[in-house]
Every structure is written in structure tokens, then in C-alpha cells.
Structure prediction request, 336 residues.
Amino acid sequence: IEEAPPSTDLITLTRHVLGDQLRLGSAATGDLTLLLTAIQVTSKFIATNVRRARLINLVGLAGEQNVQGEDQKKLDVLSDDIMVNALRASGKCAVLVSEERENAIIIEEKNRGKYCVVFDPLDGSSNIDAGVNVGTIFGIYQVLNDGSASLEDVLQQGSKMVAAGYTMYGSSANLILSTGQGVNGYTLDAALGEFILTHPDIQIPPRGKIYSFNEGNSMFFHEPVNAYLHSIKYPASGKPYSARYIGSMVADVHRTFLYGGIFGYPDDKKSKSGKLRLLYEAFPMAFLTEQAGGVATTGKQRILDIVPKNIHERCSCFLGSKDDVNDLLKFYNDPK
Ligand code: AHM
Ligand code: MG
Prediction:
């Protein structure tokens, strides 16, 4: 069998985003493209570290020393450093919020740009020792007033984000991105060092056959969630849904985008606000979900409508196929 010749017209992430910006005309300054270039570099750097983690002593606890007597950093602390350094150096950021840091970083005036980036540098890092997929999640806002930089800039509704995405570090590194005109997926070509467009215009199937919850928490779940789960496990059709739960949000959401179904991390009787963080977990994933034709809700309201009160707050989170999430909402709206 003859192999097809390799493509000589690769669409890189930068080329793709630049094309979008050019189409927007004079309003676009190219700043977002430059910021996304910085984010791409961090993803490549983190991907390399995740892959080599065991070999270069990155697994384990921060605070330990390696054989050379150097302080070791846990992979999530290292990933956070990588992100903060690159974003600050890009000159395009005003405020940064990281899961790893208690306080927001206000970028000093001389390096300041007009974007704010909220991110979880290495989500799912508790899985890393087992080689499970982990990822970086990010959301991008524009500052409220040009030149300024304050906490208010990152306490805006999720719907105000101008872009959001994640990079999943698995057998390959996949960067999924939306700048508000649909969702595209890019795969890192390690030889070229470029993210290449491999999943154009991702649309979540309107209905799936998979549910993804940590059902071990069922005894704490509120009634609508348990009633919904019962309905998909004991359906009149006799065809129950399949359970898939990796426990790494990026991987569980990624599968949900491609195959459809529902992902949920609800608030419950024990975790009153759920577990997932609003700013840098729920918002970016909700933004991508809606851009891909799905629904993202807390059960009581649209996630992107929430106005955050503090940068690390948590929220209940369900997202995925439109029909599946709407089925769940019926149990919230019409409790028996
Ligand atoms: P982390 O930010 O400390 O890594 O926690 C977030 C992770 C998500 O990736 C995942 O969806 C969730 O925690 C899994 O939680 P649980 O182990 O309670 O099911
Ligand atoms: Mg996290």
C-alpha cells in the first residue's frame, strides 16, 4: 500500500489564530496571538517535564532535595513557575491568577499588557505518579480599563472571557482552544515543536452514552443528582449509560467533548460548593463547552453567568452534551 505524501501545508496554532485576528480587521492588534504564543511555549515546556518526570526526579513532594542537594520542585509548582515567568515576560498581561498561589499577581507597570490569565498550571497532578493524563487549564480576560490592573479584572463573569483552553498531556500534547468563534484542537508535533490543527471545529455530540462522576460520593449527593444517575443506569430502554471517570478533569472533559455524554462534579452535603474551582477550572471548561454546542451548568444556573467573589472560589459543575445536561436539569427543575 502506498502511503499518502505528508502534507506540506500545515496549519499551526499561530497561523490559525493569526488568520482569525486578521479577519477581525483593525480591531485586532495581534496581542492575543502573542499571548497565545507564550501559552503554547509553556505547554511545550510543561509537556516535556511531565514526560520526563520520573527520570529527572520531579515526582514526589516539594521541599525534598535531589542527589545533587538541589531543592526539588513538585511538578505542579514547577509548572506554575513556568507559566508565571512566561506570561510576565510576554508583556501582554496585567493580572495573573494561579491555583498554586493564594494571591493574584498584579504585573508591574513596565511589563503590563491588557490581558488577564487565570490558570491551573497542572490539574490532576495527584494522578501523575500513575502516569495518568494531566493538563493545564487557562482562561483569558481583558482588563476593564486599559492600563489598569486590579483584582476586579479577574472577578468578571465567565461569559466575559475572550479566550479559554486547556492542554492535555497524554500520549501526545493536545491544546484545545476557543477565542469565541468555536473550538479547535491542536496536537503537538514534537519534531516540529509546533501545535498543528488536528481537530477543527469541535462540536460536542448532542447526546452521548457516557457519564463521568465520582460516584463514590453518592451518599453525599443531593437528590436531583442521584435521581438523574438512577435514570441513566436503569433506563426504560434497557440500555444504560457507561461510566468513565479518570479523576483528571482535563481528560474527563476532553473525552466528553469528543464522544459526548455528561461530566459532573456537583456540590453535595459534604462539599457545600463542590470541589472544582470557578475561575480556572469551571469557567474555561464551561466557555469551551458552550463554544462547542454543549451546556454547562451548576444545576441551578449557567456557569458562565456567575460573578466570582473571590479568585479561588469553588462551584458545582455539570457539562457536556446538550441533551444529556438538559435531562439532568429536569431533575433540578422538577424535583419529585
Ligand atoms: P486538583 O486541582 O487538586 O488537581 O483537583 C482537581 C481535580 C480534577 O482534575 C478532577 O476532576 C477532580 O479533582 C477529581 O476529584 P476527586 O478525586 O474528588 O474525584
Ligand atoms: Mg485543579
